[in-house]
Structure formats: C-alpha cells, structure tokens
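Lab meeting, action items carried over

1. Structure of the two-component assembly. Owner: GW. Status: complete.
Input record:
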Amino acid sequence: MPAAASTPHAAPAGPMISVIGLFKSFGAKQVLNGVDLAVGRGESLVLVGGSGAGKSVFIKHLIGLIQPDEGHVVVDGVDLTLAPPETVLALRKRFGMSFQEGALFDSKTVFDNIAFPILRHRTRDRRQVAARVRECLELVRMPGIEDKMPSELSGGMRRRVGFARAIALEPEILLFDEPTTGLDPINTAAIGNVINQLRTELGVTAVTITHDMSLARKIADRIAMLRRGRILSIDTPEQFQRSDNWFVRAFLDGEVPEEDRP
Amino acid sequence: MKADRPPAGPLAWLDHLGRGVIAALDELGRFFYIMSSSVLWSFRRPFDGAELMRQMVRVGWDSIPVVFLTCLFTGMVLALQTYRGFERFHAEGFVGSVVALSLTRELAPVLTGLMVAGRVGSAMAAELGTMRVTEQIDALYAMATEPIHYLVVPRVNASILMLPVLTVIGDAVGIIGGWLIAVGLFDANSYLYVDRTFQFLEVNDVTSGLIKAAFFGLILSVTGCAKGFYTAGGAEGVGRATTSAVVTACLYILLSDFFLTKVLF
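Predicted assembly:
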C-alpha cells in the first residue's frame, strides 16, 4: 500500500497508470480541466465526486474509449494517446472493465457473456472455456448461473456477472464504473467484499469511480476527489475522513456546497 | 456558448443552411466510414462464421415470406395492368415478356431492397443503438474487440450475400404470379406465355438485377449499422435511429437505383 500522499498529484514509485494534464470538452461543456493522477502497481484508487463531475468520462480515458483533447494517459509505459490502434487493442487485453449497469450482452446467456473474451482472445477449447467461466463465477460468488439470461438477474447479480466477465482474461488492471449505483446497502456491501476479494486473489491494480463513500472506505488505498474536472485532493481513507477541505467536508456530510465559496 | 446561439435577423437562413450542410456531410462521412472499415475488417481474423450464418438466416431466410408476397402480387398486378393496356393495340402476347423484363431488371431487386430495409435495416439500427446506449459497444472495445469487426462485418456481408438470393426468389415468384393472372384470369395460352417470357429475357437482365440487389444489401446494412452505431440520447435516440435508418436506406436505394441502371444497362 503506498504511503499517504502528503502532496496531492504526487506519483507513487513506478506507477501503473499515469494521467498527465488531461483536458476534455464536449461541445461547449468543459468536462475534464487538467487532471493529473498516478495509480501505483497493485494499488486501489477510488475516485469520488458528485454527479456530472466527469468521473465516467475520466475512467473511459484510461482504456482509450475516449480520446482527450489534450494530455496523456500512460499505462505501464505506453502512451495510449499516441500509440497506434493495434497497440491500444493489445493493451486493452490487460484491462478488465465493469460498467455501470453491467453492460452485459442481453441476447447472450451468462455463460456466453463470460466466455466471449476467452473465445475471442484465449482459447476455443470448450472444456477450458467452461472451466474458466465456472472459475470466474465462483470468484464473484455466483456459481451455477451459467444458463441464465441477463434479464433474469437482479441489478446486483448483473454487476457481479459483469465483474466475472471483466476478470475472464486475468487482467492486471480492473476498472469499476459506479459498481454500486442503485443497489441496496446489503448488495453494496457484498459488491465491496467481492472487489476486495478480487484484489487480494488476483493482485490487480484497481481504479473505481463512485459517489458511494461507504464503498470507497471499504476498498480504497487512496481516495481522490474530482470536482469541476480537476483533482481536488488525494488522501488515504483515514485522512480523507478527517479532511478539512470545505468541499470534501460538504461531500462527506451530504450538504449542498455553496458553489461560490472559495 | 456563443457559437451555439442561432443568430437572429436577415442572415438566420445562412446559419440554417450551414448547419444543414454540416449535418449532411457528417451523416455521409459516417456512412462511408462504416462502409470502408467494414470492408477492411472483413479480411481480418478471427472470422466469425457462426455469426455470419446467424445473420444470413435473419436477413435471408426470415425475409422469404415478405419477399414472396411482395413479388407475387407485383407480378400479378403487372400482368393485370399490362394485359388491360396491351389489349388496346392487340399486343397481349407480350405481357409475359414485359412482366419478366420489369421484374428481373427493376422491380424484384428494388422491392426486395426496400422490404428488407424496412425489416432488417431497422432491426440493425435498433439493435446496435440499444447496444450503444447500454454501453455494450463500449464493453466490446474494453474487451479488445473492434465492434465494427464483431457487429457490422457479419451484418453487411450477410446482406450483400442474401439480397441476390432473395431477388432470384422474387424474380421466379413474380413471373409465376404474372402467369397465374394471364392464364387463369385472361385465358392466355400457357405455352405461348411461357415462351414469350423467356424469348426476350437475356442473362444480362437477371445478372444486372442481382448486382443491383447486392449493392442494395450493402446500402441498407451500412445505413442501419451506421444509424445504430452512432445513436445518442437513450431510448428516444434508438427510436429516432430506427426510423431514420429505414427512410434513409430507402432513399439511398432509390437514388442509387437510377445511377446503377445507367451504368449497368
């Protein structure tokens, strides 16, 4: 676990992901306004912020789903913004990403969903594929649901099947986009446990975006606060909890911040 | 923000015109991007034969009933109209030739293209549009899979392959429909009718129709996929994409039909 970042924006030694001066706008709306961030190897970084702070746009930059207007995303020494498409495609195999609502293929069974990346990139051997699918489902504590369709699953179950699909290729980096939004507290706690378990068993680097503070406290090594397209602070969960930054306090206490405060 | 505010006053029409031109060029750019990249990705591994087969069944096999009925009744009405018309100058004997030539050269490929655009092009737009708004297309990228390769290539190739097959069926069914009316309703001589049908029909009439059909398959699938692929704005956006896919594909088919006919005949 990296030491607490006393100076925000400081990069831990040998970062897995470095984000340098990221700017992105859609039309006239400036979403990212110069984000600098580094995620260490094996670290779990949680990015929190209000709705519309640019969290989802940010996480999509990490895997090259969105190209920045300005700035760089460097993953394990490879600059995603400059690399040729083949390199980006190859690099994506080292990522696993779980999407807000799971983004499961709704015309395919749970088995076919999880088998998809394996069949595409690993092996077509039926027995090996079935074994790996079973393994992934056990890792997210959902064994024996291979034949179900995504529409038969609850929101929490869909997220976990999404996790299972994300880890199918044994990625080095896991990205979670709002993994608990819309879930009840029990399911939220279960998702947190699953994420922690995946981290300890697979030893991956994880970046999670959420506005759920209970989840952030549970899974984070460091918590970064995103506001108006910039990183406002990066702290350990303990420091974050004691932060005297007025916006962080407002966020933690669930108060409406006065936008015109300094 | 300033740029987004439409200017008032006498020059407002210029602003409208400019926006219209940009939107049209945008649309055309997307169409050609999807078309060219689907051609390029067609030759790259892995080749997904199972998905191609699935799409061929959806585009081809499942469209047979609608193409069958459309072409049957078109052949029948053609015979009905030409018989009534040709009677006036005693040329009833040429009804078979007219029906066969009109169907193979023009009506079977165009009507098949339009019907399949309505049935399959719209479904492609709806399916890809839903996948876009529920992040399934992003998920494909995230799994190091190019969505054009996995989603668009099999749909486009299946349409290019199946439209000519459907057109052959349409040709045959339409000619039979014409014969049914001529022989059944107007007591034409069956032997003479069949003889006249094939007397003036050349191989080129059929093949040029099939080339057109393949081209219409390309147009309707690329339009459907492009509309779906670039969907934005949730469920409403999917609805818009679906409608627009059908209208645009039909328009492109009818426009390109003229130029193809000019080139091919």
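2. GW to write a short summary for the group page. Key points so far: The longest strand of chain A covers residues 15-26. The longest helix of chain A spans residues 185-202.
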